Amino acid sequence: MRSKIAVVGEKASVMGFRAVGFEVFEVEEPADIFSIVERLVKEAYGVVFITEQALAKAPGLLDKYKDTRIPAIIPIPGRDGTLGIGMENLRKSVERAVGADILNH
């Protein structure tokens, strides 16, 4: 069984993902982000890419799902570039796994 992949974010950042077969969910309001992710969890999506710009409007979303195996929620830069959320999330995950911040320069 193949896992479904979704991309969540602002229209200008996510529409191109539809061309490669991902399901795209546009968000307008911050409250939409939480309800969309809840729906994706219930529908057993394996991977959910969310633009950093959308995540910035949904504080606590990554923390809510950080210990779940599925879905993997992965921050991606939006059309306007990165906000550093993805790298910060990676840094925290590595620190939890090895007990030290080995990525901080």
Short description:
The protein contains 5 helices and 4 strands; from the N terminus they run βαβαβααβα.
Structure report:
The protein is an alpha/beta fold. The chain has one domain: Rossmann fold (3-Layer(aba) Sandwich). It is built from five helices and four strands, in the order E-H-E-H-E-H-H-E-H. Strands 2-1-3-4 form a four-stranded parallel beta sheet, sandwiched between helices. The radius of gyration is 14 Å and the shape is globular. The chain starts with a strand and ends in a 7-residue tail after the last helix. The mean pLDDT is 81.
Helix content: 40-55%
**Fold-level CATH name:** Rossmann fold
- Structural class computed from helices and strand pairing: alpha/beta
The number of domains:
1
How would you write the strand order of the largest sheet?
2-1-3-4
Assign an overall shape: globular
Q: Which superfamily, in CATH terms, is the homologous superfamily? A: ATPase, V1 complex, subunit F
Largest sheet: 4 strands, parallel
Number of helices: 5
* Computed CA radius of gyration, to the nearest angstrom: 14 Å
End-to-end CA span? 41 Å
% residues in beta strands: 15-25%
Mean pLDDT across the residues is 81
The residue ranges in which pLDDT falls below 50 over 5 or more consecutive positions are none
Taken in chain order, the helices and strands follow as EHEHEHHEH
User: So, CATH architecture?
Assistant: 3-Layer(aba) Sandwich
